[in-house]
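Example for tutorial group B:
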């Protein structure tokens, strides 16, 4: 016969098994989501990055990727910005459950996606091209996102994406326009945006796999 302790262990094992099955169950309906403005992690090298004359932000790329999956109903960004500006709510970076609930009520959504561009770093490999010094630079970007149920304040899912992009920088003594400095490395703004876009798509790919059991960008985000 089983002892009381053995029975308790058995019951707990069954309970944990059921819980894990519930958590692993994919969504069957399109969630309505609002994407907040993504912040920059304090202390990350992105603190020194200023992107001039650019039109898209990290949240724009995330919205773009979410829409492309066909798995989400995404709130229009302009409408979102207008309504939240009127409410004077903090919507960048980490968001607390109380603020999230207010956002949900204002926008009429069940879920919000928020987070940070956690880091942007650059590395350089020196080359000589026709006696002219040049660097081939690689920029990496990391995005961490959380999907919150605004009704409960619970984090439904979290995902991280990494993106890489390369560019060359000629050291010919003339002015190089369209470049920014990351640490001590000169990197093109196009490469920075490419890496952030790839990180956004990689993050959405992982998020969608965990929520729906499918990878909409399989193969595209495996090797950035």
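The residue assignment follows.
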């Amino acid at each position: 016969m089983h002892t009381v302790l053995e029975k308790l262990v058995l019951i707990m094992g069954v309970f944990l098994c059921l819980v894990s099955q519930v958590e692993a169950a994919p969504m069957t309906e399109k969630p309505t989501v609002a994407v907040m403005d993504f912040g920059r992690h304090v202390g990350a090298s992105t603190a020194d990055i200023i992107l001039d004359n650019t039109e898209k932000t990290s949240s724009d790329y995330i919205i773009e990727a979410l829409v492309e999956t066909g798995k989400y109903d995404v709130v229009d960004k302009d409408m979102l910005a207008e309504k939240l500006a009127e409410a004077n709510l903090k919507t960048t970076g980490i968001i607390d459950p109380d603020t999230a609930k207010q956002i949900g009520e204002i926008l009429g959504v069940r879920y919000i996606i928020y987070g940070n561009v956690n880091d942007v770093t650059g590395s350089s490999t020196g080359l000589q091209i026709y006696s002219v010094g040049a660097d081939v630079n690689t920029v990496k970007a990391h995005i961490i996102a959380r999907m919150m149920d605004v009704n409960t304040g619970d984090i439904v899912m979290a995902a991280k994406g990494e993106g890489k992009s390369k560019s060359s920088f000629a050291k010919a003594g003339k002015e190089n326009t369209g470049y920014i400095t990351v640490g001590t490395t000169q990197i093109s703004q196009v490469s920075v945006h490419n890496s952030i876009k790839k990180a956004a798509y990689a993050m959405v790919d992982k998020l969608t796999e965990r929520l729906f059991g499918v990878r909409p960008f399989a193969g595209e985000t495996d090797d950035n």
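Residues 189-212 form the longest helix (24 residues). Compare this with the pattern of hydrophobic and polar residues in the output above.
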